[in-house]
Amino acid sequence: MKTMIIGGGKVGAFIADFLKKEGHSVLVIEERREELERLYSEIGKDSVFHGNGTDPVDLEAAGIRQMNVVATVTGKDEVNLVASSLARFEFNIPRVIARVNNPKNAWMFTDEMGVDVALNQAELIGRMILEEMSLGDMIPLLKLRKGQFSIVEEKVHPDSSMAGKRIDQIELPDQCVLIAILRKTGMVIPHGNVEINPADEVIALSHSSQLDDLAALMGPAKGK
């Protein structure tokens, strides 16, 4: 994948380095001349373009039309919004991701502004804290579709209503599916005739509205 990152601060540099290590082609656009030497050292001169991420001429010169993804991650929400809109509506980039610095501005980061995914760090941390408080030992691993779905992991309680049952005997929430079962002996693919053992670590994909129901199934049965 070819990715353009607009903003070469600490966040942008970290993302660029991470993506490069994963084998992706990355180009960082940074306007501040004093940041260039640091970026050259951290991610390589060939991965840095000195220019303005809100200037269509600079974006064109940097090769934005060849990109699959544009991520706007500067420390200014207004810059990220303008750059996102240009990427989507001027250059037809198929995937636009934007960083939200001030949570009060999150309402502006929408499809109408050209943003496919808004990364609101404050909201993500808040949701994780809330889930840790309400779901006990359930660990959120990944958010999908702007938080509508979660991939979670939880250890099956010995007194759980699931323990000792085959998967085809368990009534899971209708928008929940088991992905894998981790045991000391390794990973088990959760087919219908697989029996759930106490202390199994279950990885599941669930709609956010059904996480409580899933946690109740894996926790101690009522009255125990």
Can you describe what's shown?
- This protein is of the alpha/beta class and 224 residues long.
- It has two domains: 2-123, NAD(P)-binding Rossmann-like Domain (Rossmann fold, 3-Layer(aba) Sandwich), CATH 3.40.50; 135-218, Regulator of K+ conductance, C-terminal domain (Alpha-Beta Plaits, 2-Layer Sandwich).
- Helices cover 28% and strands 26% of the residues.
- It is built from six helices and eleven strands.
- It has a six-stranded parallel beta sheet, with helices on both faces. Strands 7-8-11-9-10 form a five-stranded antiparallel beta sheet, with helices on one face.
- Strand 4 (69-72), helix 4 and strand 5 (95-100) form a beta-alpha-beta unit.
- The radius of gyration is 22 Å and the shape is elongated.
- It starts with a strand and ends in a 6-residue tail after the last helix.
Distance between the termini: 51 Å
- What's the mean pLDDT score? 90
> Structural class, from secondary structure content?
alpha/beta
The level 1 CATH classification of the largest domain is Alpha Beta
Q: Which fold name corresponds to the CATH topology of the largest domain?
A: Rossmann fold
